[in-house]
Every structure is written in C-alpha cells, then in structure tokens.
Write a structure and sequence with these properties.
Blueprint lengths: L1 E2 L48 E10 L8 E11 L6 E6 L1 E3 L5 E3 L7 E6 L13
Antiparallel strand pairs: 1-2, 2-3, 4-7, 5-6
Length: 130
C-alpha cells in the first residue's frame, strides 16, 4: 500500500495462500515456466515526499478467534517513499505492539522479504510531480 496525498493512496495485494514452513511464496510473483517475468506491483506517486510505502503480511482469521473472521496483521514494514533506493532490497518485517510500540519479529532481522524496487519519474495525466 501507499499512504500519503489522497491521489497517491493505493493498495495492491497478492491472492491469499497457505503457509508451508517458514517461507512464504506467492505464485503470481514468480516468473512463468516460459521465463516470462511476473507483472510487478506498481504505484503512481505524485508527491513522494508525503508518501509512505507499507508492506503488510496478513493472516486469515476464523470466527473462533473472534471478530467473525477476516484479516489480522502478522507483521509489516513502512518507509518514506522519497527515502527508498532502487535495486534488490531486504525489507525487514516488524510487529506492532500495544500503545503503538514497534518491535522486531521473533527472528529479528532474518524475518523479511526480498524485493526489487524500481523508480521511474513520470508525469501522470493531470498530475505534476514535486
């Protein structure tokens, strides 16, 4: 997700999948068998100095866990967009606690996602970047 100016706010997600072991892998993020690269998640951001990139890992909850089922955040990462650099990046995951406290996951810096970031300065129709 991207949080920021109203015109920049957006959310994209991969389909829910069942966890197998300690590694999460989304089929739609893998190259196809013929070698075609997957379609990347893409966000158009006109005000990078006011935007925050948020990566969340959610789990499906059952009605037995209260709340009638839905999603619960397992861990997350957030960073200001204007501080991101392109390339392969390790995205460390954090846990939110009570009172807004944020702490590392149980496995510390080993818990995270490997992401490839690219930034392209483009002028969107009717939006002038900063």
């Amino acid at each position: 997700s991207v949080w920021g100016a109203t015109r920049d706010c957006a959310r994209q997600s991969y389909a829910p999948m069942r966890l197998v072991g300690g590694v999460v892998d989304w089929p739609e993020a893998r190259p196809s068998e013929d070698g075609t690269l997957p379609k990347p998640m893409s966000f158009a951001i006109a005000s990078p100095s006011a935007a925050v990139l948020l990566v969340e890992l959610l789990t499906l909850t059952s009605s037995s866990q209260g709340g009638g089922g839905g999603y619960r955040r397992l861990c997350f990462f957030a960073a200001p967009v204007d501080g991101l650099r392109p390339g392969l990046r390790w995205v460390p995951l954090w846990i939110g606690g009570c009172g807004g406290e944020v702490r590392p996951t149980r496995c510390g810096p080993l818990s995270g996602l490997l992401a490839h970031a690219t930034m392209r300065p483009e002028v969107l129709a009717g939006i002038v970047p900063e």
